Structures are given as C-alpha cells and as structure tokens.
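Figure caption, in words: inputs first, then the predicted bound structure.
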Amino acid sequence: MNRKIALAVLAALMALSACAPSGGAAQTAQLAAAQQTLDALNAAPANPTSTRVPPTTAPTRVPPTAAPTQTATQAQLPGGRVEPPKDLVIIEFDDVPILPSRMNTCYTERQDMSPFGAERWNEGDQLFGSGPDCQLVFELRVNETNFYNLMLYGTIAPDYGKARLEIRRGDSIDLIYNVELYDPVVQPGRAPLDLGNWLLNKDETNHFVITIYDTNPASGEYKFGFDFMTMECLNQIRGGSC
Ligand SMILES: [Ca+2]
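Bound structure (calcium ion present):
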C-alpha cells in the first residue's frame, strides 16, 4: 500500500477509536496493533530503497540540415530538373576528349544551338557531327566502384542518322540501343534516354561508344547531335561510397 495512504488510514482509525465508545479487549488489541504499525511507518526512512531513475535529459533537438545548394552545373541542366540527383557527374560531349576508335572517327564540331532555342540544350550547345560508319568513344571515369545510372541527352533532326550506343567495361562490350535520330524538327530528344544502371569499376577502363551506322530514308544523311550525359552514383554496394 502506498505509505501516505497507509498513514492516513491508520490516523483515521486512531481518531475514530478515540471518539468511539470502548469496545472491549479485542478493540483495544486492534488499536494497539494499529498504533504499532503507525509508529513503525513514521520511524521508517522515506523511500529507503527507491530505484527511481531520475528523468533523463530531454533529447537535444537536431537542427534541420541545410537545404542542398544547387550547383551552377545542375542549374544549367535543361528541362527544369528541380531535384538534382546525388553525386551527379555530367559529361558535356563537346567539352571532353573523343578517344581513338577502331572505326573512322566522325567529323565533329561544337554547335551553338541558339537558332533552335539555346536554353533547351545544356550550356546552349552540343557536339554536332556526321558519318557514316564512324564512331565516337568517350571515357566514363569514376572515382568509386559502384552502380551508376546513365542518362543520355541528345538531339533529333531532319538530317540525322541512326546511332548504336554501347557501354564498354574493361574487356566486355555491352550492346545497349540502336536509336533513331531522325525527326522532322530540330529539337532535344523527347526524353533523356535512360541507358540503365551499370556497375563501373574505378580500376577498369569504361567507355561510352556511339556508332553512326545507318540513316532513315526520310533523312538520307548521317548527321548527329549529342548534348551531354549524366552518371548518377546509386551507392548500391554494401559499404561502398560515391
Ligand atoms: Ca551541351
């Protein structure tokens, strides 16, 4: 029983017994026992073996992290991408080296896309060129071995041909897509082309290869335009990092 309640009950009994008429030897014995208990409770130290745990300090509120700062490069991405992916690498095709190929090297040049609405292309330009039967090889350099999602941003136009896209990892060659680049109107591809998720090893040589291999009858030419591609580290390796 709660100590305070017990004291109150015993005190009430004592008070009642003091007012009540005498009840004989049994009542006297009960009152004596009650008095004894009351004395013992009064003499006992308060809460002698309390194991009550003091309240813990209130958890410190963690301030919200600062919103990620959008980088200038991400801000330049066309198409209004609001949430830049984590660890995004951008390969701007007209800014990176074109490596030697076993096939003919395509004719290429940087093309200012202002006549077609520069704001629709990253940095307002693209790598323009022409075939046929030529190949562009770009290195996919990664600092960490991990899975990466690859997205391609290209252009479609009335005088464009067909392209075969490959990912080469080490000694393996993975055929990805044959893509039609012809369209009656010069414009960015209607959607970025998702090339899928790939395990890229930092200790191997990885390449993205574009081969201009054919043309559409409506075009009759083998020209092409590629804006940029992105490599987003997906961090799907246990213990890995991006
Ligand atoms: Ca560009």
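The chain has two domains: 3-43, 78-233.
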